[in-house]
Amino acid sequence: LLCVDTKRSKIYWSGANNKLCYVQDKTVLDVRADKQPIGKVDVVEPFTTHELDYKAGTVFYLVTDGFADQFGGDKGKKFKHKQLQETLLALSELPMPQQHDRLNDAFEKWKGKLDQIDDVTIIGIKLS
Description:
By secondary structure, the chain is α+β, with helices and mostly antiparallel strands. 21% of the residues lie in helices and 28% in strands. A hairpin with a 2-residue loop joins strand 3 and strand 4.
């Protein structure tokens, strides 16, 4: 869950299992998510709300684990979160439609002829 306060240049974010990645000042950063699912759990714990300042041009990426967990490449290994962060950093200055196209191309190239193993969601939000 991401809430943007444009008047104070702040975001408020809570996440379940998947960290928030963002690019600010040509640096990729992340915020750790709570290690619990949304929905049925035996012990309900409140989610942590993170408050962050942002600058104009910051791009926030809400992601599932599907891209990073996809098998592919020359050795049939997982793409991994670090490689995804590097990819997001490299694309972050492009217009959002081009980022979409390049991420889709990178995923398909990585996956190759292997089956897609999970849902893949990446929501990018560029703030001014």
